[in-house]
Amino acid sequence: MYELVIKGGRLIDPAQGINECRDIGIFDRKIAALTHEIPPSEARKVIDAQGKIVTPGLIDLHVHVADAIIPLGAAPDEAGVLRGVTTICDGGSTGWVNFPGFRKYVITQAKTDVFCYLNICPTGLSMMREIRGWDDIDTEATLKIAVENRDIIKGIKLRAVNPLAHKLGLKAVKVAKKVAREAGISLMVHIGDQRNRKAGEVDVMDAFSLKLLPLLDKGDVLSHVYTAQAGGVIQPDGTVPPELRKAQDRGVIMDTAHGRPNLSFEIARQGLAQGIMPTTISTDLASTNIHGPIFSLLLTMSKFIALGLSLEQVIEMTTVNPARALGEEKRRGMLKVNMPADISIIELTHGDFMFTDAWAGNEQKGDILLLDHLTIKGGMEIIPKPRAKNEVASKRPF
Ligand SMILES: [Zn+2]
Questions:
Q1: Ligand 1 mean position, distance from CA 62 (Å)
Q2: For the chain, which terminus, N or C, has the lower number of CB atoms within 10 Å?
C-alpha cells in the first residue's frame, strides 16, 4: 500500500530519458514505485495528474533567501516549495560572519531544501559593493565555516564587480578559488557591474570578465552568462569570445541567474544561436524581485521556452543539471525508487504571452507558460501560493 500515488501525469525526467505517462507511488517520504499503472486500490490517496507534467522536484541554483538576515533576502519557501521548487541554492547572501545565523534561523526552518554558496565577503551581501579592499577578505575564517558546514555550503561566491575589480584585480578571484579548492568545493563568480556598457568601445569590465574566465574549472559556476551589463561576456554585437567557448567546453556551468539587471533576451538570443546554452536556468530571486518582475523559476523557464529551448531542455536545466552542480545527483534531480519524494506537478498552459527581461528592456512573445500546480516535498503535498495578476506581462518600470 502506497501513502500517495500520482496518477496519469506525463512524466518528464531528462536524466533518465523518460517522457511518457507513468504513475508514481510514494511511501515513507520516498519514491517507492515508478510504473505505467498503479491500481488506485493500492493507494491511501490518489492525486490525479492527468493533463499535467510531472518532473523531479525543480532546483533553482541561484536565489537570495537569507530572509531577515540581509535586505535582499526573500523567504525560502516563497522562492521554493510555494512556487513548485523543492530545492534552492543561495548565491552568496552570507559570508562567514552571518552564515551561522542564516543556517540556524532560516535554513533549518524552511520546508524547501536550502544549499548555499558562501560569500568571500565576511558579511555577504548585507551591503552591496561588499568588497572594497583586502581587509574585507578573511580566507582562514571563510575556509573554516565552509569546511564545518559542508552539508549546506556547496561553493564559494565572489562578485567580480567594482570596486573589487579595479582595487584587488584578478588576484581576488584566485584567492577565492584557492579557498574553494581547499574546502573541496566549487567557485561561483558573478559577472555584470550594475551599469551599462559604453557604446563603441570594449568596456574595461568586459575585459576583466574575459581574463577571469580561464581561471574557472569544470564545475565552477559563471553567473549571469546572458547579462548585457558592463562585464558581460557575450558582447553587445553578439560576439562570443573564444574564452567563453573554451570555458563551456571545459564544463564550466553556464548559469542564467536572471535577476532584474542580468538577463538580456537580446544577448541570450545571440548566445543561444551560437551554441552558448545555459547549463542551469536559475532566477536570482530576492526580496527586490520576487513580487515582480522575476516572480518564479517556472516563469523564467517559460521565458527560455519562448527563446527557443524545448520543454525537455528547460526541465533538464532545472533538475539534473543543477543537482550535478551541487553534487547532489544521488538524492535529487531525477525520479528513482528510494530517492526522496521531491516532485513538481506542473500545468502547461497555451496562450499569447509577452515576456520581459526586466531592466534590459526587451520583450519576447511566447505561447507556453508553465505554472505550478502542486509540489510534493518529501512525500508531503504543498499547494502553491496564489499568483500575482501581473505575473507574465509585467513591464517596466521596476
Ligand atoms: Zn545573485
A1: 6
A2: N
Q: How confident is the model at residue 396 (pLDDT cuts 50, 70, 90)?
A: very low
Residue 11 grid cell: 512524466
**Range(s) of the chain covered by CATH 2.30.40.10:** 4-55+335-356+366-382
CATH number for the domain whose boundaries are 57-325: 3.20.20.140
Strands (E), the chain: 4-7, 10-13, 18-21, 23-27, 30-35, 46-48, 53-56, 58-63, 85-91, 113-119, 153-159, 186-190, 221-223, 253-255, 343-356, 363-377, 380-382
- What residues are paired with 6 via a beta bridge? 24, 47
Contacts (Cβ under 8 Å, ≥6 apart) of 243? 210, 213, 214, 233
Number of residues written out for the chain: 398
Spell out which residues have Cβ within 5 A of ligand 1, the ion: 91, 284
pLDDT (0 to 100) of residue 320? 98
pLDDT the model gives residue 397: 36
Which residue intervals of the chain bear CATH 3.20.20.140?
Answer: 57-325
Per-residue pLDDT tens digits for 78-113: 999 999 999 999 999 999 999 999 999 999 999 999
Domain 4-55+335-356+366-382 has CATH 2.30.40.10: yes
C-alpha 42/C-alpha 214 separation (Å) is 55
- The Å distance, Cα 258 to ligand 1 centre, comes to 9
Cα(390) to centroid(ligand 1), Å: 23
| CB count in 10 Å sphere of residue 15 | 18
Element (H, E) at 270: helix 265-273
Dist. CA 218 → ligand 1 center (Å): 20
Mean pLDDT of 275-286: 98
